[in-house]
From TrEMBL:
This is Uncharacterized protein. Signal peptide: none annotated. One of its GO terms (biological process) is lipid A biosynthetic process. Residues 21-85 form the UDP-3-O-[3-hydroxymyristoyl] glucosamine N-acyltransferase non-repeat region domain. Coiled coil: none annotated. Residues 97-175 form the Mannose-1-phosphate guanyltransferase C-terminal domain. GO terms for cellular component: membrane. Keywords: Acyltransferase, Lipid A biosynthesis, Lipid biosynthesis, Lipid metabolism, Repeat, Transferase. InterPro entries: GMPPB_C, LpxD, Trimer_LpxA-like_sf, UDP_GlcNAc_AcTrfase_non-rep. Gene3D superfamilies: Hexapeptide repeat proteins, MurE/MurF, N-terminal domain. It comes from marine metagenome.
């Protein structure tokens, strides 16, 4: 639960109305709920401003509030993103190096790196500071992962892939696998090796 003033401070906006109004979440403007906040970022939603049952609205134009409580600022879209993150549930992650992780002795791990259960890290892998790697991941030789990145579970990073700083890789991703390249001669197929690598920037 947050007050309207606390949310305004979070998004660097100005309260219009009751600054002590309690807000416990976010709702759409069409299906607003009491004690939630909504927003108007596009003209097509302005028609719902007077009928929404949300307790407060984030707007760029004070006139849209039509007597309702709200927050006034230049970018409602950016503001609602911050509010959504504020109310999003926090999920705990494994911290430290799990005893079932298999890490090659040549791998270089930065400070405060966490590696989850059953993850395999091959030769000459470099992992930056404060990076979290979830469970059941396979990180092949020569991979570089920048600082403050997060890899969820069941990810495969193939040889020599480069992941930048502050990246988030979601579960099930396969990065750096070779392309489907073949040359054919008299119905005989020869696989074409790929000499490049995947580079994901910061």
């Amino acid at each position: 639960m947050s007050t309207l003033q606390e949310l305004a401070d979070l998004v660097e906006g100005t309260v219009v109305g009751d600054s002590s109004l309690p807000i416990n979440g976010v709702s759409t403007i069409q299906e607003g709920k009491p004690n939630t906040i909504t927003f108007i970022a596009h003209d097509k939603y302005q028609k719902y401003a007077s009928s929404t049952t949300a307790s407060a609205i984030i707007v760029a134009d004070k006139a849209l509030l039509n007597g309702k409580d709200g927050i006034l600022l230049d970018s409602p879209q950016e503001a609602i993103a911050k509010v959504l993150n504020h109310f999003a549930p926090a999920y705990s992650r494994f911290e430290g190096i799990h005893q079932t992780a298999q890490i090659d002795s040549s791998a270089k791990l930065g400070n405060n790196v966490s590696i989850g259960p059953n993850t395999v890290i091959d030769q000459n892998v470099i992992i930056g500071d404060h990076t979290t790697i979830g469970a059941n991941n396979v990180i092949n030789s020569g991979v570089k992962i920048g600082a403050n990145s997060t890899l969820d579970h069941n990810i495969h990073l193939f040889h020599n892939s480069v992941i930048g700083k502050r990246c988030i890789i979601h579960s099930g991703a396969v990065i750096g696998v070779d392309g489907f390249g073949f040359t054919t001669n008299n119905d005989f197929h020869i696989k074409m090796p790929h000499n490049g690598k995947v580079i994901i920037g910061n």
